[in-house]
Amino acid sequence: EWGKEERKSNPYKKNQEHQIDIRIRAHDNRFVVYVDQKELAEYEHRTPLSNITHFSVDGDVLLYSKGVVWG
What we know:
Blueprint: E1 22-26, E2 30-35, E3 38-44
Antiparallel strand pairs: 1-2, 2-3
């Protein structure tokens, strides 16, 4: 059982075109999401961290990356 879906409000206006820096840090029991170096949200793991192999982004988004660190 996953439980109730967790959602956080989006601080950016729709159709606002600019680049933002998003970082997701995995801790032993939770993920912490940072946007432009400010903490936006925390989410507790719903499955052991070792079982997580990918994530997805949904919506009208263009992704650019200068590097991804996993592990």
